[in-house]
Amino acid sequence: MRTRMVNLILLHHPRLPAIALAGAALAIAGILSEFDPYSASAVLPPCFFHALTDFYCPGCGTTRALHALLHGNLTLAMQMNPMAVIALALIPLMLWNNLHPDRAWIARVSDARIWLPLVIAFAVLRNLPWQPFVWLAPG
After folding, report:
1. Is the pTM higher than 0.85?
2. Distance between CA atoms of 113 and 107, rounded to whole angstroms?
3. Would you say the C-alpha torsion 41, 47, 51, 56 has a positive or negative sign?
4. What CA–CA distance (Å, rounded) separates 66 from 26?
5. Radius of gyration of the chain (CA)
6. Of 95, 88, 97, which is closest to residue 63 (Cα–Cα)?
7. Spatial separation of the C-alpha atoms in residues 62 and 70, rounded to whole Å
8. d(CA 23, CA 12)
9. Which backbone phi and psi does 121 adopt, to 5 degrees?
10. Where does residue 125 rank: exposed (0-12), middle (13-18), buried (19+ CB within 10 A)?
11. What percentage of the chain carries pLDDT values higher than 70?
């Protein structure tokens, strides 16, 4: 019953997922503009994966990268998590693909079969202790 109700809502409001994503993005931007992830008393949690394993996950540094982007520092954002910054730039294309599925090149950019190996490779490479891979580690 609940699934049918959700499907009916989405049928009547096809842009609801995009609106929800935009609302979440605004909320995250508001939080990151108010709270500094670099301070010792930061209210934002650290990466649980890194705390447990001492390895960087593909998302490590994303909070600090988003904070840097909100404050206009693209260089620092790329130092924190280059993949997150690049993926963030591609999100509008992925949303466009959901609204206009006839664009084949956008569909290729948003295909998980492309992103999954890239994310896994990024996670492995950013934990290697040699140059140039240490540049992929946050900070």
Report:
1. no
2. 11
3. negative
4. 12
5. 18
6. 88
7. 12
8. 19
9. -60, -40
10. middle
11. 80
Residue listed under structure tokens 């946050």? 138
Q: How many CA atoms lie within 13 A of 27 on its CB side?
A: 6
| Higher per-residue confidence, 39 vs 131 | 131
Full DSSP string of the chain: -HHHHHHHHHHH-TTHHHHHHHHHHHHHHHHHHHS-TTSTT--SPPPHHHHHHSS--TTTTHHHHHHHHHTT-HHHHHHH-HHHHHHHHHHHHHHHHHH-TT-HHHHHHT-HHHHHHHHHHHHHHTT--STTGGGGS--
- Long-range residue pairs from 116-123, CB within 8 A, at least 24 positions apart, any chain: 118/83, 119/58, 119/83, 120/58, 122/58, 122/83, 123/56, 123/57, 123/58
The conformational region for residue 103 under phi > 0 = left, psi -120 to 50 = alpha, else beta, is beta
9 has pLDDT over 60: no
Report the alpha-carbon distance of residue 62 to residue 134 in Å, rounded: 16
C-beta separation of 70 from 29 below 8 A: yes
